[in-house]
Amino acid sequence: ATSIRLFTIELGIGEDPLRCRLKHAVLISCEAYEAISYVWGEPVYSYSLICNDQILMITPSLRDVLLRVRRTHVSRTIWADGACINQEDLNERGHQVNLMSDVYRKETRVLIHLGPADENIVSKALELIHGINNKHEMPAPSSDDWIPLLEFGSCQWFRRLWVVQECVLAQEAIV
Fold first, then answer.
1. CA distance readout (Å), 118 to 91, 115, 121, 123, 151
2. Which of 17, 46, 80, 112 falls between 20 and 30 A from 136, CA-CA?
3. 64 and 42 in contact (C-beta within 8 Å)?
4. pLDDT tens across 100-128, in order?
């Protein structure tokens, strides 16, 4: 059977320590989970995630994502490569990379974290897109209205090759 790790992120608010319960799961019969698509950033493991009362060091970008998706009222089961794959074990890493298409097919949704983008830019870009869609008219090419969309498109997340697989195979994708 094909096995992966999932973790259930415990409740918390703001800067509360990140805690989770890490567990093995058989991919074809595991519980519902959400996958995270994010930019790794530099491989500097400077933050801790407390998993099963043990400390797992994670990158600043994964910490940011987990703080953002952690809930205050109900736990959430997650798959994130930075926590669910032993990055120091090259054999495991290679095996798990081969399973990633199945991981993204099986999840209930993929949570997309664009990186250090200004949320205001994202909302303005989406507002522009909805406006074009609803009004069937576009701003002039020289208009400053396009700036948020250009900044949105320049987010680091869009520069990753894996995003195609992560989004195309997802049942649902949420930014």
1. 37, 9, 5, 9, 9
2. 112
3. no
4. 889 988 989 999 888 776 677 778 888 88
